[in-house]
Design goal:
Shape: globular
Strand content: under 5%
Oligomer: single chain
CATH topology: Formate dehydrogenase/DMSO reductase fold
Number of strands: 0
CATH class: Mainly Alpha
Radius of gyration: 21 Å
CATH architecture: Up-down Bundle
Order of helices and strands: HHHHHHHHH
Number of domains: 1
Helix content: over 70%
Distance between the termini: 28 Å
Length: 311
């Protein structure tokens, strides 16, 4: 039961962190907002504030569950001295404490300030630090010396690349779901421009994910343990994760090379856009669903020993 709570808390933190990092970035580099489109983006503040609240709640749950796992006694979750010992005396606790402080700052920004470019930049920068903090509580943090530093940096880059991709998907999913409600003449052209801008950034993110994923696999699995992928729970979860990731890549390629140009073509000739928007909506929603599945698998894998740790 405790392991399930740990996994659920990790998933909640991952989901919230990628939204808080990648979504403001997407607004900054891909979505130019004019006065006619602004009413259609009133959900930005509630989305970011809800993500910050989810991150805070999930972090508190993670602290409690991890304390119970470490001490072997759920009762000690309510003991302040024990909680402080976990906070102050473990790398996990220090990383989680920093994450909580940063989350509080992000929540204040989302609730109290207008979402100007400066505010969005601040939210994204703070959330980048939150995402990077997971590298200090994962398998990569067990390395020592120079190789240990390389593992942590590699994990941080991997997490940030995932945040760029998945955070943008969250925004695109909302834009496409609400597209049929919008009547502004600028809405669909702006959405099309956002999709085109994301294509280039998404390609860089995918390249970074593949490169850092290969490096991570070298450390956590290694050539001598490839056969263990089919004999361990960690290995099977990794294989399922790779299948989901390749599904995301396939959908991303379809969106970039077929569906987005198709929407641009009908917009250029004032043709009917409903079929193109529907196809894009379905594709992005499935891609986002696979992204959530990947994060859930990563959350579960974090509780298991990788093949390289076994004799």
């Amino acid at each position: 039961m405790l392991e399930l709570i740990v996994m659920a808390a990790r998933l909640g933190q991952f989901l919230a962190a990628v939204v808080l990092f990648g979504s403001p970035l997407f607004f900054l580099y891909a979505l130019s907002v004019d006065d006619r489109l602004r009413p259609g983006l009133r959900w930005r503040r509630p989305m970011l504030a809800a993500a910050a609240a989810l991150l805070g709640v999930s972090a508190v749950a993670a602290l409690g569950a991890q304390t119970a796992v470490m001490t072997g006694s759920p009762v000690l979750v309510f003991d302040l001295e024990t909680l402080w010992a976990v906070f102050e005396g473990t790398q996990y606790g220090r990383a989680l404490g920093a994450r909580m402080v940063l989350t509080a700052l992000v929540l204040v920004l989302c609730v109290s300030l207008s979402l100007s470019k400066i505010a969005l930049t601040a939210v994204s920068v703070l959330s980048a630090l939150i995402l990077a903090s997971f590298a200090w509580t994962g398998h990569g943090a067990t390395g020592v010396g120079a190789w240990g530093v390389i593992q942590v940096v590699n994990d941080a880059v991997h997490l940030l690349a995932a945040g760029v991709w998945l955070g943008a998907l969250a925004v695109l999913a909302i834009l496409l779901v609400t597209a049929h409600r919008r009547t502004e003449i600028t809405y669909l052209p702006t959405l099309h421009r956002a999709l085109r801008h994301f294509s280039g950034v998404g390609s860089v993110s995918v390249a970074a994910l593949v490169a850092t994923g290969l490096i991570n696999s070298w450390f956590l699995i290694g050539p001598s343990h490839l056969g263990d992928l089919f004999h361990t729970s960690y290995g099977w979860l990794l294989l399922i994760k790779l299948l989901a990731f390749f599904g995301m890549l396939l959908l991303a390629a379809i969106n970039r090379f077929f569906l987005t140009p198709g929407l641009g073509g009908v917009l250029a000739y004032d043709g009917p856009t409903a079929p193109e928007v529907h196809a894009l909506r379905r594709s992005v929603l499935v891609e986002a669903g696979l992204g959530i599945a990947v994060l859930a698998l990563v959350s579960a894998m974090g509780t298991l020993a990788p093949p390289s740790s076994e004799a």
